[in-house]
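Table S2 (continued). Query chain:
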Amino acid sequence: MSGTDHEWDEGNPERLYVITRGRSGLAERTVLDLVTLIVSRSKPQPTMQPEHAAILRLCHSPLSVAEISAYLRLPMSVTTVLLADLLADKRVEARAPVPLAQLPDRALIEAVMHGLQKL
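Corresponding output:
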């Protein structure tokens, strides 16, 4: 065996299979999309899978699932499996992204403007 046999390419399907332990998709009905924010609730443990520990270190402040996937250089499908593990163990918290500001009803704005013009 040469030294290169032990090196894994980041996109290697066998590596991804090992990381997810052969699982695909979310283990539970957790909805994680690209913009779901993830925040660590615990610190990495020495016995943890390296990718799980990396997620906990990355998410000391909120990061989106897409950002985590990019930082880890893993496909979204693999990242969501890892996040589902951490969610099930309550090591991370998933938060909906900050909603867009709700603008007041146009009719209300026009009524206020009309009222101000009468002053």
